[in-house]
Design brief:
mainly alpha
């Protein structure tokens, strides 16, 4: 049952990824702008008002890419690990799948009205994926060591 839930969440995330990639610049900016405005209010209350809304929006978008791909790569790796029970194979296949999705995301954005593709976003996506897979790998390794002895 847990594998089915993770699979469903992963498919949902891929669907969200594709939906966000297809959004025009106006819709995309509106969505990230809501979160960015909230972050700006928080910064101002903490006495750190040196960032413009554009700088905050950039950070929000890039952190979003990083975290999204960290979660996505981890969920793909969990599904693959449950199927094959091989850590290395799960991490490699998850990396390939995540890289493919990152390229697809930017390819689609290239054709969305007012948006463009970014190699920088692919690098951030893969950094997030690498972090997610590192945490996944260490977790599997620690659990395996505890079970062995």
């Amino acid at each position: 049952m847990k594998t089915k839930m993770i699979t469903l969440c992963t498919i949902t995330m891929v669907g969200l990824l594709l939906a966000f990639a297809m959004m025009n610049i106006g819709t995309s900016t509106k969505i990230s702008g809501i979160l960015s405005h909230g972050v700006q209010i928080m910064f101002n209350r903490l006495g750190d008002a040196e960032y413009t809304i554009y700088e905050i929006d950039f950070m929000v978008r890039k952190i979003g890419h990083f975290v999204f791909y960290a979660l996505l790569s981890t969920m793909i790796a969990i599904i693959l690990f449950k199927k094959f029970n091989k850590l290395y194979l799960s991490v490699v296949l998850s990396s390939v799948a995540t890289l493919t999705l990152a390229f697809m995301d930017e390819f689609i954005q290239h054709y969305a009205k007012g948006r463009n593709a970014s190699v920088f976003d692919i690098v951030i996506d893969m950094a997030g994926a690498a972090m997610g897979l590192l945490i996944f790998s260490v977790t599997v390794w620690v659990i395996d060591k505890k079970e062995q002895g």
